[in-house]
């Protein structure tokens, strides 16, 4: 793959498949009103010197293709490219084809900042889809604020942030956590919890919110443990869990540690299908199950906003198009879907504002609705996060989740939750 | 020739080398590059501090530390703590439950600034700490190891473990350190906005001046009797010991100097890049810093600067165009430097290029004095 | 923290925890044995040790796929075939690396460190290009992933027993190889005096290559075994390198017994601390203790006192 | 503990060192007088080099005492022992090959031995004169600006002796100073040693009996870490125990 060059959207992929997918989506979901470029003169829609011509508009894709985070970020890159393909197939944004410049963050935070700056300053991209870890987002944030760029950030994360220059397309912690804990206490009658996490900010913050909520419900947290990223030995903590006999193991383990944890849990005789204890996680998407092995995590519950197995029409078309573009073996996790929303949300904001200017997009963004999202209907909140439903999936042996619960209404994003800090 | 060999600070060719580097750093790069690229080169130059320290420790003294990232990080963190406190005024942080403390502390339910953060309100204390903290730390490690005659491979592995420990600690104590995200969103230095283009340019020059100060210090050490003792220790440690020197003291000293250089680099890194995170403390960056030094030539302080510039520039360029090939290239570079060019760029220069230049110069006036030939080989 | 539990429960947990410590011990032994040979006997610092382990893991992954596709009837025992293949693959790669690289660097131990670090980067990228950046899921036969219920509380994981048995058998095999066979005598002779060994007719070049190959092969077997408990990805090997080196150095280079003793003490310390503290702090305390002891006793636990 | 006796420069008493149970030096005692040249001889493995290692602090003794002019050397660091006035030459020539002869001698000049002393050490005239003087003594005055790596084996041995001389030690210990030298070099070395041992005490380990006879005041024969015989060259040569050890088996 060669980066840092302009890509016309359809390069290197099966154009027909994409068009078919895009068309299927278009046809089945809504009838787009075709916007023609000549109705929107470049000088009018681009007053800040962004990379917009009469026929094209350039955006940036900024993820890790190399390094340890490449494992996770690949799916996001694929989703963003798919969305761009489909938008172009429908006629682009304000009649202009989207071109993208892809940069590699190399799993290294200063590199992210460096490349973000390059995208904004040298390439003058109209928006950036990118970042995965909180650390990379924190590193680029000052750059986006200084040069007034717009970042579409796909990962579920710890919250505690609300930047005018970021649209958070994944869930923040309270959206993901509170609904899940309510569900497990109401349907499963859980009374005691054991919190486990990898040792960094997202698991720690999430567990903090979880603990407050559990205690608010009058229930008990019987243990809380953190292991360094990349840790591979979990027998001691599994023993502690056996001693404390929690009803729920609430696990936020990430990366390679995940694989070790679930394999060792299974080997220690904790059969998750028996739900004694029940395992609830917010960090294992279908992507992670590939590495863990479906047979090792069968019976666990995951709480997030999207599962590949969702059966609504939007999602069926999305999964079909995704597989046509990237191959049949691929799985789609929560973050991948959230990344897919980025270009669509940006398109909607541009069209609502009638301009590519970042300030106008920012103004236009709150209130934007997307009825075509694979996860269903979403809406941008004033705090730049998405209103979205939260769902609970039950892991099956084949590596997919069966959706067993879904919140009745959209959950309001609350990045600075009162009483949870 | 029965007179004593040259004892001047510079031989002629060394002086020329310093001048050329100064021209590159202070004239060519700033003129040729836009602010963005210049800032990148400024970042690369902060690694050169570490590489120069490694030339003293490893090339001259034979002490290979795989934990230089620790000192780079400590220096950088000290600076970042000061900048973060300045950025965390009660007005800026009014949305927090406890305004006036850094944001990550607030997220971690800290309600007051930890006592050991307090002194970092003072800029002069911070400047002191940038050097003192890493030096004290390296002194402790140095005393413990060199007094017990731990050297070579063992020293390398233990410093590596120290880097691992510090990384886990920083990440684990996120309420106090910012955890894996590091200390981010640094804005001003005594009210001066360090994010603007003009600030970046000024910082680049400050960085260059600091680097030359370190280079001159390193050159002075190399040319002093202490410098010759380091080489002597590397080759015949026992002989030095039985000539009445307390070998450990010299190793501790040079290790502390290396740590101080790395720390200055770290502080300049924080200023120019605008944040500090544990990813510069661990094993991988520490080993990469060794390769900067090896590529430049482990015996040449000027080579170390070129090594840091070249490897990092290549990293940026190649990872932009061929992200998949970059790791292969970096790996191959490690192997090539060790197997084919153990003296790095500086070695290639003295063996292959310098003789030709001299030949050329000899043909036409003014000829370089032949006496310098051997001295050139030493640098 | 224990007042709420009955004696029976506590007894069971301590038994389990002891067992967890033993598993960790076996994991450390498996990680460190290959390195102990290469570092201890040859003085080579192989920073690519983790990547040799991961090669074994990938071989296991491929073998499991082949068995699943072509020999489903024999799937339950594919693991043994995989371990042998892992040994061969990592061993051959090791011998190649020794021939191409290491043999030129015997006099410069610190340089082997840099060169093998370069090698590890290259191997990581090769794994990424061949197997993809994502972790691969190795399907383990069900019988290995089960557990033996001893009482209500005590359940012994079979993969733990498997790792332990493997660690013990490889240790014994290596012990016999190094200390009871003519070949082992040659290796040790070279370690003590290369020139002399050469002079008395030992084929030092071949012995070196075999030693390095066996060390890497053992790493491959370890990697194969770790598919049962850990992840298999391009960069997974990096997770092991610091622990492995500390185990070997702490034990005293050149001493297999020392390596085993050090694996035992570090694993027990870590396992016990993990039970009482959070995992991160347990790890920091363990590493600090090891580094502290190494500063006081740099030659490690079991170094011979030699006349220099 | 040994009480210092002003008649002796060095008093070695009950010195023992054991390596994992093997006693390389076993309960050894001997005494060296001022201006004496003591030669230690003995078969391979007798513990000769180990004795020197123990005196100069390179090996730590298991028990016993080494008293040098009233100071207990066993409790001192190597560099402190050197400063007390003990110089040691190793068996294989150990000079700094990457440095010039001048620099080799300069590093041994007894000044600027602390870290900062070395950092701000000035190469002034007394230093240069002294180096010139020593270089002449060790036949290397024409090689001062050459790298030590380019010297012949014998010249390296001389250089190392010169590096000791410049410190002007009261007790000089030489481990096989003529090993590997040509006949001509041997003669020159004997001459050199005869010149420099006059105003100090010397302990020499040597195999070459002709050379020993040339320089020795007294001879100590070591066998299995113990003194087998001691006295003048003539007495030792006629001692039946010595003959048995050297020729008996």
From TrEMBL, chain A:
Question: Which top-level group of life is the source organism from?
Answer: Bacteria
Coiled coil region boundaries: none
Q: Which CDD domains does the UniProt entry name for this protein?
A: PBP1_FmdD-like
Q: What PROSITE patterns does the database record attribute to this sequence? A: TAT (PS51318)
The record's listing under InterPro entries reads: ABC_urea-bd_UrtA, Peripla_BP_I, TAT_signal
PANTHER family the UniProt entry points to: ALIPHATIC AMIDASE EXPRESSION-REGULATING PROTEIN (PTHR47628:SF1), PTHR47628
What the entry lists under NCBIfam families is as follows: urea_ABC_UrtA (TIGR03407)
**What name is this protein filed under?**
Aliphatic amidase expression-regulating protein
The upper taxonomy is: Bacteria, Pseudomonadati, Pseudomonadota, Alphaproteobacteria, Rhodobacterales
Name of encoding gene: amiC_2
TrEMBL record, chain B:
Domain of life, per UniProt, equals Bacteria
Q: Transmembrane region positions?
A: 15-33, 45-67, 123-146, 153-172, 202-221, 242-269, 289-313, 325-342
Listed under GO cellular component are: plasma membrane
Q: For this UniProt entry, what is the primary localization, expressed as one broad class?
A: membrane
Looking up InterPro entries in the UniProt record yields: ABC_transp_permease (IPR001851), ABC_transptr_urea_perm_UrtC (IPR017778), LivM-like (IPR043428)
**Keywords from the named record:** Cell membrane, Membrane, Transmembrane, Transmembrane helix
Any idea where this protein resides? Cell membrane
Kindly indicate whether the keyword ATP-binding belongs to this entry: no
Cite a single GO MF annotation: branched-chain amino acid transmembrane transporter activity
> Is Chloroplast among the key words of this record?
no
Its membrane topology is listed as: Multi-pass membrane protein
Q: Which PANTHER family match?
A: HIGH-AFFINITY BRANCHED-CHAIN AMINO ACID TRANSPORT SYSTEM PERMEASE (PTHR30482), SLR1201 PROTEIN (PTHR30482:SF4)
Q: What is this protein called?
A: Leucine/isoleucine/valine transporter permease subunit
> Organism classification, top ranks?
Bacteria, Pseudomonadati, Pseudomonadota, Alphaproteobacteria, Rhodobacterales
TrEMBL record, chain C:
Chief localization:
membrane
An individual GO BP term = amino acid transport
Source domain of life is Bacteria
Q: Name one GO molecular function term.
A: transmembrane transporter activity
Supply the alphabetized keyword list.
Amino-acid transport, Cell membrane, Membrane, Transmembrane, Transmembrane helix, Transport
* Gene Ontology CC entries for this record: plasma membrane
InterPro entries in UniProt: ABC_transp_permease, ABC_UrtB_bac, BCAA_transport_permease
TM spans (from-to): 12-40, 52-71, 77-97, 156-178, 212-233, 239-263, 275-296
Mode of membrane association: Multi-pass membrane protein
Q: Does the keyword Mitochondrion apply?
A: no
Where does the UniProt annotation locate this protein?
Answer: Cell membrane
Family (UniProt):
Belongs to the binding-protein-dependent transport system permease family. LivHM subfamily.
Protein name (database record): High-affinity branched-chain amino acid transport system permease protein LivH
What organism is listed for this UniProt entry?
Actibacterium lipolyticum
Gene designation: livH_2
From TrEMBL, chain D:
Report one GO cellular component: plasma membrane
> Which EC numbers characterise this protein's activity in its record?
3.6.3.-
Reply yes or no: does the keyword tRNA-binding apply.
no
Q: Name one Pfam family in it.
A: BCA_ABC_TP_C
MF annotations from Gene Ontology: ATP binding; ATP hydrolysis activity
Q: What class of enzyme is it?
A: hydrolase
Provide the ABC transporter domain boundaries: 10-249
Is Hydrolase a UniProt keyword of this protein? Answer: yes
InterPro entries linked to this entry: AAA+_ATPase (IPR003593), ABC_AA/LPS_Transport (IPR051120), ABC_transporter-like_ATP-bd (IPR003439), ABC_transptr_urea_ATP-bd_UrtD (IPR017781), BCA_ABC_TP_C (IPR032823), P-loop_NTPase (IPR027417)
Keywords tagged on the record: ATP-binding, Hydrolase, Nucleotide-binding, Transport
* Name of the protein: Lipopolysaccharide export system ATP-binding protein LptB
User: Upper taxonomic classification of the species?
Assistant: Bacteria, Pseudomonadati, Pseudomonadota, Alphaproteobacteria, Rhodobacterales
Whichever gene encodes this chain, its name is: lptB_2
